[in-house]
Structures
1.
Amino acid sequence: MRPSPHHARSARGLFGALLTSLVSLAALLTTASVAQADTTICQAFGTTTIQGRYVVQNNRWGTSATQCIAVTDSGFRITQADGSVPTNGAPKSYPSVYNGCHYTNCSPGTNLPAQLSTIANAPSSISYSYVNDAAYNASYDIWLDPTPRTDGVNRTEIMLWFNKVGSVQPIGSPVGTATVAGRQWQVWSGSNGSNDVLSFVAPSAISSWNFDVMDFARQAVSRGLAQNSWYLTSVQAGFEPWQNGAGLAVTSFSSTVNKGSTTDPGSPTDPGTPGGSTACKVAYGTNVWQGGFTADVTITNTGSSPVSGWKLAFTLPSGQQITNAWNANLSGSSGAVTASNVSHNGEVAAGGQATFGFQGSSSGTFTQPTAFSLNGTACATG
């Protein structure tokens, strides 16, 4: 993330001189071998490419102190991280490896930016190596924007905090928990003044993981921080250090964006993005008792054309879990939930409605979801 534009020798006798020369030659050969294996970058915004498809960037923007990274064919390692900045402010840098476009520098052969509605899936894998004598996060960034821009700051940044050490925290404030891609996360939401930031913080360190980036992009859509018509512009994996950081490493990284329709027209309950108008309004009626509740949901198509197959995404507040449902197929029972039509209610005429409901358990103070999106577009409520 870049939030702003962004050696003496001596010898005794002929034998001694020869011996010293041989030792020096061996040292030179060793150094040359290391230099061939690793490319060292100390320039603030220096970059290089690896595997002919990813860009590695030093990306030091929050301090004038030296930062160097050693780039390998599979990732990079921070070798020097001088200086420190207060942990209640922005980090020193974001050394990272990425697929996509960052400040006009696009990775070789990338198919990003890509419209979310055209992405079938975006599998990625990452492996990290951590240190303890530093203050930092290990962050995987996903950037979204309403336009296919390749320069500057995007509208929404999704951050996956795989690990954090020291008194550092995400931008904004905690807004609950969510289960995404099979893992539990603490969710934070806020703005850094340039873009919205949606952060998912792992409760304990994750050293390596394979996942689908689109699971998190859909979270941003369901929370009203993106739309299905927006573009995925880049995915980036690295570290945000505040203090020290030498020894931190990305040991492997991969990212693929598979294009193609996510909807099977013959399957109205397909988990992809159905077609048709998505101007909408949602009414969410509840009956609440100690430890439980029911919800009756009415979707009104306020657009001028029919909706053929629908998916309604929303996030249940913390402490709520769905136990059964009717008139919809549900993906997820707590946190991020997506309801999709069943065979008899997939067609919603302009001005028409579709209804479904569910029962669930709850703990603590009961609240309702604050945002809904239909087929990737935010709905009005009331």
2.
Amino acid sequence: MGEQGRTRPGGSARALNEVYDTALLDLDGVVYAGGEAVAHAVESLETARAGGMHLAYVTNNALRTPDAVARHLTELGVPAEAGDVITSAQAVARLIAEQVPAGSRVLVIGGEGLRVALRERGLEPVDSADDDPAAVVQGYGGPELAWGRLAEASYAVARGVPWFASNTDLTIPSARGIAPGNGAAVEVVRIATGGVPQVAGKPLPPMHRETILRTGAERPLVVGDRLDTDIEGAFNGGVDSLLVLTGVTDPAQLLRAEPRHRPTYVDADLRGLLTGQPEVEPASSGDGLVCGGWTASVRDGALVIEGDGQQLDGLRALCAAAWTHAADGAGSPEAGKALARLGW
């Protein structure tokens, strides 16, 4: 079934780590949250790697360098090297280098990750709009980003300096909850200037290109927790995806997903890499869609789930019913009671 017409999650008789050569893993909300490993992540990744799967870590967070990310992963029990980490800072630095002369100055609104990535491309990071920059780049600067940095970006963009953003994620998960992301800071500059930046990060093609160039993946599987970055990025790149429910996306959002936000597979956490995925099939009666012991259907505009079995199988069946219903042009049905029936 082509991604353009996906109306139900996919199935796989084989474990996903045997089907795909490389897992392109998001970090925040997938491998760790608030700096601590997500439940089951460490042992699942260790088993996948031991089975021959290449693990690459792909993040829209441009704050930290690949070295710093790799050290953090290793400390958590997930051995990694800098070459295993691909950041939106690297993707945007390549994008800028393709459009400005070698050695150009670039005004940086962000952290060390952006500076290192720019130097890797032979560009010179600067801090002021008065330093005659050839470009402005914004990346996540952490919770201590000063308001004056956004003013520097605004001064340069208002003068017509080309503007780039590592990514436009409006939020980022933290140990205390959901915090403003780089996209929120980008919005500040947009409001002040009326400008529109070129964006490199997920879900856009520059990030997918950077990832494939650096990993050499031939059969990649994108693994993420966000529909509008990880899953849409896989859709745009024409590759399969696994959504894990350990981060931003909840079941209700998944049921409402539009076609480009529908993952190939759905699982609770990274243990899903190590197993096959059950098929969702039409009910033998012709009424509804079946996964495991559950049958999902749409009646009078509402999702209905009947049966018994694994919670995730019920969610997969509900996805199939909701996505099929939406594909008919009737919109997403009310899902609250059906999800409550499954314990969500």
3.
Amino acid sequence: MPPDALAEKLTSGLLSFPVTHFDAELRFDEPRYREHLAWQASCGAAGLFAAGGTGEGFSLTPAEIDQVVRAAVGEAGGTVPVVAPATGATAVSVEQAKAAEAAGASGILLFPPYLTEASQRGLVEHISAVCRATSLGVIVYSRANAILSDTTVAEAAERNPNLIGLKDGVGDIERMTRTYARVGDRLIYIGGLPTAETFALPLLQLGVSTYSSALYNFVPEFAVEFYTAVRAQDRTAVYRMLSDFVLPYLDIRDRAKGYAVSIIKAGLTAVGRDGGPVRPPLTDLTASELAELSTLIEKAAR
């Protein structure tokens, strides 16, 4: 998919970060993953981000990432764009971008470099190296040790025609305002804070027209309804859904580090779709927390 076509498609609707399914021995469970992707692709998502944050991409080997991306492309690529990850050091990210293009992915989500801090100049070079390695559209994820300034984003966009988007995982209003004022519609802007629904309405005013929803994994109808209310700027509906479901959900999510991922797999289990376990160093919800989440989902459905 040409970069400009990917950008247009991704901004047309809600985006999803599917979980990656593991079996009891924590091996990649491809049949269950494919079943989940088929369901996700049928519910109206505008893009699927394989092996991303919610997909525990940080816990996968490079070979497993390639396997996950190929499974996603094979199962859902004909229906919805599949965006593959590029993670870790620059050389690793370059190789993953090449592998993703060979696997038939539609685009690349470039994650922060592993562990080390970097200057803004170094981050421009990191982004540029990955963009040069592929003809696919690249979205860069600004968060953690790779928080991008407005001038960095502008320089990276100027140097790399296939850089199509910025995914924001910071939520700094001044930074986003400066970035949009400087770069404008040259890029698309994707909300990437966990849990994205919490920030979706205010960020819409800053040019962040869509976001990646982890909730879409297990309550896709709710997630799409929420997205529709945000795009319509229906504050009454947005805050009703926040109060009824999202904020109580956050109360469970915030009880342990890493639960932003674990609770999504628990949500799948709660709706009868068996999310399976997370890999260390993440930990699964307790039995009582899973029961609490199940009750919340049932209440919201009523």
4.
Amino acid sequence: MLFYALNYVYFYLKAGNQQAVHSSFVYELYTLAIQAKKEYYAFSELENLRQELISDRTELEVTDFGAGSKHTISPKINNNSTKKSISKIALYSATTSKKGQLLFRLVDYFKPKTILELGTSLGISTLFMALAAPSGAQIITFEGCPQIAEKAKENFEELEQDNIEIIVGNIDKTLPKNLVSCPSLDFVFLDANHRYEPTLDYFNQILEKCHNDTIIILDDIHWSEGMEKAWKEIIKNKKVSISIDLFQLGLVFLMKDQPKKHFDLRF
């Protein structure tokens, strides 16, 4: 936690706001989507769902595929136990309101037709994206743990979202074989194994399905030294033009008509 806290202080001191942005594309994105204050109908609906989950003491058998998975990132959860309550997963592993609302605004802003997510958890982040997606959009989300995936499916049904396909199993195995038949990707959210090698591996695999206008978002880029290292390598990739560090999330763009530039922005 000390590593994370010190990183945040350093980031906050160097990060800017819209006045530090000398790119019309990033300026509009930052002011109209990232920092926008507009409230959407879906926000209260999803926060009600979150509170339902936080109140649910049902225990699930958690299948964990690595120390960096999103189900073990909080020391407050007993990692020696294979059972975890829905309440604790909702509190410590599901995406936060701030991140979820940003995902909603980004999907609403870019209107992607094909969305891919790695790390469904209870499906809150998935629903933020699904509720903002345009008509006919397809959301494909990968979750390693079968019981957590089942609960996510229940949440999708509760909110009547039938445009979501959930793929269950070890992402190291399910991602390569499903990417073969996957359509070109417009919007990607990486929130699965929070370690250096898996993060880079997932990014490089997904890159093969991306196009000029694809948006890739990475969660917890400063969570550990490994995640920071992966993030730094990703933004150096020759296919990446614009990268935006919001501390909690990292945004990557592949637009060939944009000069390569990095931004540290407060969020």
